[in-house]
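pinned: reference chain
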Amino acid sequence: MPSLSRRPSYYAWIYYYGPTDFYYESPDYDWMPEFACARLSFDFSEELLAYKEKVENWYEAINENWIENVSLAGGKPYDNYHYFGEMMDAQVINFGLFNGYSIHKFQNTLGTFTADVYWQHLLNGNTFWDFIACTGSGDAIQFDDETEITGEQLLDAPVNSTIPIVVSTSSYNGSYDSDLDTRLDYDHSFAECLLRSQGAGLAYVGGVRRTHGNPVYHSVDGNLEFPGGKGRLCVTLLFPRSDT
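pinned: its structure tokens
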């Protein structure tokens, strides 16, 4: 169920207030989703028509080689010595969530988790799905070396149809209420700019406020384990495999 609006229908309290469409997904308010809901956050009908054309071109461009390519990006967000970003990437691989896919890695220890390298990746396209474990400011994704890719950059991306669905752990970048919440000091969020861009990405899955992206962990026989990690990753990551 798409919603064409930058005005949230609901706010929910989860540590603090944030906009949500979850009540559309669970109309009986039992917090178990019965429907899928996506929001097309645009200001004008012309923007919606441009996005409609972008989606149509994306579907026309789909081929078997492209949709079998995914990327995993991450490093050490919050300068944490456990390299949580890379560990989340590793979990995706170890759980077998993308067995049979060609996986492209952009990671701190490989020297490829930088804004310059990842920006070229977005411009080149040719991955169907991208996961990036990083921090965010609302209008940018941020890398370990303190560089960033901004929403304004996305708006300058050239036309490209072989672009990914972007999933990110970054905070605030999925917001769509900056015209209402004066604490958000940007006109459009990273996600809203991604929808408006001619290239770089088709859709964005991520948080509208703080995501608390550092996972909870404990040590078992010298090995780090993340309670509930597989469930969270499956919920976030498996939707590209859906037949619906």
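why pinned: The helical segments are 22-25, 45-61, 64-67, 84-94, 115-124, 151-155, 190-196, 229-237. Residues 11 and 145 are 34 Å apart (CA to CA).
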